[in-house]
Amino acid sequence: MKEITRIIAFYETLKRKADVACALAMVVYVEGSSYRRTGARMLVSEDGFWEGGISGGCLEGDALKKARMAILKSKPELVRYDTTKGDDNQIGVGLGCNGVIDVLFIPVDFENENNPIEILKKSFENNNKPLVVITNSLKEPELLGKLFYFESKQSIDFLKNHLDVGLFSEEILALEKSKNYNIDNELRLFVEILPKPITVYLFGNQYDIYPLIELLKMLYWEVRIVSEPNKIQNRENLTIIAPSDFSENLLNKNSAALLMSHSLEIDKKNLRKLTTSTVKYIGMLGPKTRSERILNELAAEGTKIDSNKIFAPTGLDLGASTPEEIALSIVAELKAVFSGRNGGFLRERELPINERNQEIFKFN
């Protein structure tokens, strides 16, 4: 989310200048290993500046040239980088990535309210609606690079000559992750499911919440502090919710809650409120015996608790001791939980680090 936010900010700067053209480079297909996955993007200005990235740095140099060419031609272009071949003329050879990466370069027209960055902004403003980009079109080449966000079947009505709009709309609505589609071997689409923003609710006002706030802001996650406002330092640019105003209805499956009050009774009271919410993660600061006491007392009074949501003590086992180290262990565990990972050592992982898109799904 941070990268997209910075790309949009860079775009706004270029738009105000109005005399520096730019192009969007977007990874739309990956097969095998690569540093970045589908949806990675960078915005390149014709004067050689850029924001974002499509690799670990190995492809950016060539991407600058390709982006400038797209600007010059005022025409999108799909470029394949194949680092699996031993061709010395192939960009990326010798890096050991062993992957195939398709990058779509789309020139950005500031005057067009439906240019790719404006569409990205609109998707954000509409609860991260799925993005659809046409990555190949044999019969209608002018469709290459068309990018739009999906809101209803009317969004893809112009594709009715290629597919069943109603069925494909249902397909998009059911997606949980990005996919590539091949339509009758003449049209390829990349449907990107943008991640929903993660909101972390911090229940507490002691000094150890501040390193957490800094780390979460660095990730561009949303932070909500549940506390009496007058107990929070440097309240500017912070969202603070008074305990009397807090409701479990504020939480959803993209939310996490951290109980950090340092008061057993207050943490127990807050946990009681959270048990009926749809929150994905509830972390409890402090030793295991303390958490077990709170959970046992709530169980004794008849409060039902989903133990799968409870992480007590909160955080990964990093040997953390200072507030900053504890914040790191908590944020690392949050990331692991929301990514569906266990948070172990990567050297012990038998599967690839990232899921590999080795299939283009057919739809006809």
UniProtKB/TrEMBL annotation:
Q: Which domain of life is it from?
A: Bacteria
Record domain XdhC Rossmann: where: 200-334
Pfam families linked? XdhC_C, XdhC_CoxI
Identification of the protein by name: XdhC family protein
Q: Which organism is it from?
A: Lacihabitans soyangensis
Q: Where is the XdhC- CoxI domain?
A: 17-82
